[in-house]
Amino acid sequence: MTQAPSSTARTIKVPGPDHPITIERNSQRVVVRVAGCVVADTLNALTLKEASYAAVQYIPRQDVDMTLLERTNHATYCPYKGECAYFSVPVGGEHAANAVWTYEHPYDAVARIKDHVAFYPDRVEAIEELDH
């Protein structure tokens, strides 16, 4: 993700052989903890794999304690996924600033991640994938 430029004109790219993106249902339970608090717990995570980047777990908002999140003004743009909004997790202090991101209106190629959020692994205590 890159910092959102000030211009409203956006380049839109479609995933393909040079930049593949796959989204698959994760069969494991995914639990996210911040400062000892369970922030998310789901059996319905989606694993997004994009090009050579590490796989990312996208968790349905309904399985996230949104009361623990605080929306920020930070925003970025991905030409493959769209406009990205961020949340901090105040219980995690400054370390958890902008730790959570979401594509509220993702492009068609990644429409499945709508109403999901993802967490930066280095800004939360743990993202656990557990057998259930």
UniProtKB/TrEMBL annotation:
InterPro entries: DUF427 (IPR007361), DUF427_sf (IPR038694)
Organism: Dyella psychrodurans
Gene3D superfamilies (alphabetical): Domain of unknown function (DUF427) (2.170.150.40)
Full protein name: DUF427 domain-containing protein
One Pfam family here: NTP_transf_9
Superkingdom classification of source: Bacteria
Segments forming domain DUF427: 30-122
